[in-house]
Amino acid sequence: MQKSQRVQAQKQLLDWYEIHGRKDLPWRDASDVYHVYVSEVMLQQTQVKRVLEEYYFQFLEKFPSFLALAQAPLEEVFGMWSGLGYYRRAKNLHESAKLCVDAFPRDLKSLQKLPGIGRYTASAICSFGYHQSVSVVDTNIARVLARFFGEEDAKEAHLWELADEFLNSSNPTSHNLALMDLGAMVCLPKNPACEKCPFVASCQGSSEPDKYYKTQKKNYENKKLHFGICERNGKIAMNRSGEGMYKDMLELPNIASTCQEENLLGTFPHAVTKYRLEVNIYKVDFIAEDVLWIALDSLHGAGISSMTKKALKLYNSVKPKLCSRN
Ligand code: SF4
Q: How many separate helices (H) and strands (E) can be counted in the chain?
């Protein structure tokens, strides 16, 4: 691309952003890099609306700084993350805060040494938090670049090169945010609204956008899970998960090998990452293994997954019937 074309496209992009960009998102004018970091971690796997309405402000109110987060017990951090999913993110955030209480890194290389921070998150922190002249490539930006430059099946490394080449060094933060918004609002995976795009006249992929970005089909795996609920004196038996995506969180005992059909309280579907789960909940009178006894009414706001929340909701809904039967 010639310099004059690039400069024109950069200007068109910023003009579009000025009118249509999501500039009111609170983390976009955050002066504290901690806020940018928290928002980036939350947004890694969760939609903007959900983060904005249910988690971002609540989390910052509870843990307003790296120091506050570092000093909090992991259980409390999980509690504020409860329902957001991908709990490893909360653990990484907590660990990073503990490592960086005195000073949070300011460069790409050092940031990527922190747990859970890859190239994208590091560059987003440098660009949005420190306003450095670095390019950013997330899935939305990758799609815009691939189409705009007419790059079929472009490898990730090449997309970063294109992003570097296209970066507007006189206003890199707004440039990156504009590309991100363009991908999220106009250059959609399916049926991009090219007629609303500032690049429509120069985009190499606008005539055949699907050719330059193929939506990958997700392969889901079906699984059945069996959990037991054993209640004694207002407390229920729980375990601390030792592995997987719920590592260190409280969960109901897995009773797959001992469950009995006649004790089934109910079943619900649950989707998490690549799994489509059928979750079966049973009433259990005796738990042989070593468990933690947790007061039922203290579980609201505790570090439990949304799957466990659903299981407890199911239990609470059938409990009156169980009591009247006894
Ligand atoms: S013109 Fe169409 S395909 Fe090209 S960047 Fe804009 S929305 Fe995407």
A: 14, 7
Distance of alpha carbon 215 from alpha carbon 191, whole angstroms:
11
Number of domains in the chain: 2
**CATH code for the domain in which residue 311 is found:** 3.90.79.10
Q: Which residue has the tokens 């005992």?
A: 253
147 lines ligand 1 (CB under 6 A): yes
The answer to whether 32 and 66 are in contact (CB under 8 A) is no
Q: Do 206 and 304 fall into the same domain?
A: no
What are the tens digits of pLDDT across the range 51-69?
Answer: 999 999 999 999 999 999 9
Give me 215's structure tokens: 């939506």
**Residue numbers of the domain that contains 235:** 221-325
Residue written as tokens 């300011």?
Answer: 106
Q: Is 133 helix (H, G, I), strand (E, B) or coil?
A: coil
Average pLDDT score over residue span 262-286? 91
State pTM to two decimals.
0.82
Euclidean distance between CA atoms 97 and 105, whole angstroms: 11
Whether residues 280 and 194 share a domain: the answer is no
Name the helix (H) or strand (E) containing 175.
Answer: helix 172-185
Atom nearest to 198 CA in ligand 1: 6
CA 14 to centroid of ligand 1, rounded, Å: 15
Ligand 1 test: best mutation among 203, 207, 208, 214, most atoms within 8 Å of CB?
203
> By the 8 A CB rule, do 218 and 251 touch?
no
